[in-house]
Amino acid sequence: MREDCKKDFKRLSEYLDGELDPDVCREIEQHFRDCPECRECVESMRKTIQLCKEAAMEEIPADARERLISMLRECFGRTHTE
Prior knowledge:
The chain is mainly alpha-helical. The chain is built from 5 helices and no strands. The model has no long low-confidence stretch (mean pLDDT 81).
């Protein structure tokens, strides 16, 4: 993972929660527009968060939970081609 990717992923939770300064958000959003791998990971995380909110009261089946964990590990472990 490139250094600029690492920097933005460290702030991802705050970004998704709307807790960052607007200038920082614009900087992160520009990175995501320019970096397809990060954009894909962020979109996947947004969808995952939305699904979790919608299913907060439902128990996630073990096989689905394992697939989700595997997907997140793959997303965060992905390396970029420079």
